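Exercise 7b. Backbone tokens:
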């Protein structure tokens, strides 16, 4: 039975649908429901995980958890907590999470810009002809004291190529941008088989140190604010125009995200 909702809040529900695509499975970090033994096993195997709310947005509630030797720690917001063993770590996390449904996701060692992690918001929308079309990619560099890259958490917005070129050269940056757009197309096609009423998606995509992309999560009601901070205004114009075509109007009040230092402006 087809689901006619246009907004799917559960990250786990969307992840399960995405994983039905054989092409996409290699781009999805291991993601499980938060349980004590799941957290312990994933920390033993990976050394770093992200604990995040199943339903949530704007990077709120995301926690980075690490195991180094026999010591454990986590960071939430700008605060970092350390523990001598797993039981104390888990008790603290459980108190912080409470009864809310959380996920554990394998940590990705992402590329950095000036020692700050960055990822990308990839926007894909229904065109006027109802075809899925990528309409923009914006780079998001984390606030110096935070683990999340969201503009709403004080992140800085860059053109994608400006962040990727130092790591992969001009040709490598172009290849990764094309690959992210390809991943967005396949993701949209996969999700819209189950949720045919979808009109737009915002993929959060990270690139690891071997230049492999990872889908961190998929948003079905994405905030276009990052695109208002780019020097090239063509992306946000197209995003707004396509949204208007399917009856959506954005409230573009974007005060928290920072604009990258100017290096020339295109209009």
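Sequence design result:
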């Amino acid at each position: 039975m087809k689901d006619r909702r246009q907004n799917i809040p559960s990250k786990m529900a969307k992840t399960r649908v995405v994983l039905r695509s054989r092409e996409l499975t290699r781009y999805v970090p291991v993601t499980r429901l938060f349980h004590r033994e799941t957290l312990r096993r994933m920390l033993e195997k990976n050394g770093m995980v992200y604990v995040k709310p199943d339903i949530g947005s704007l990077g709120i509630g995301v926690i980075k958890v690490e195991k180094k030797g026999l010591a454990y720690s986590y960071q939430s917001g700008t605060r970092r907590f350390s523990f001598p063993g797993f039981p104390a770590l888990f008790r603290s996390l459980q108190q912080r999470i409470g009864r809310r449904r959380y996920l554990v996701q394998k940590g990705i060692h992402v590329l950095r810009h000036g020692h700050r992690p960055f990822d990308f918001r990839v926007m894909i929308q229904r065109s006027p002809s109802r075809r899925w079309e990528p309409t923009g990619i914006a780079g998001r560099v984390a606030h110096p004291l935070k683990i999340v890259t969201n503009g709403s958490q004080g992140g800085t917005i860059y053109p994608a190529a400006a962040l990727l070129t130092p790591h992969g050269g001009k040709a490598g940056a172009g290849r990764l941008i094309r690959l992210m757009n390809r991943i967005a197309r396949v993701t949209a096609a996969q999700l819209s088989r189950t949720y045919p009423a979808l009109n737009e998606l915002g993929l959060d995509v990270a690139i690891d140190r071997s230049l492999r992309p990872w889908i961190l999560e998929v948003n079905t009601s994405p905030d276009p604010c990052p695109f208002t901070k780019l020097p090239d205004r063509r992306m946000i114009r197209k995003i707004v125009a396509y949204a208007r075509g399917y009856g959506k109007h954005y409230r573009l009040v974007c005060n928290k995200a920072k604009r990258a230092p100017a290096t020339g402006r295109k209009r």
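Instructor comment: The helical segments are 11-18, 36-46, 86-97, 160-194, 225-228, 234-245. The longest strand covers residues 116-126.
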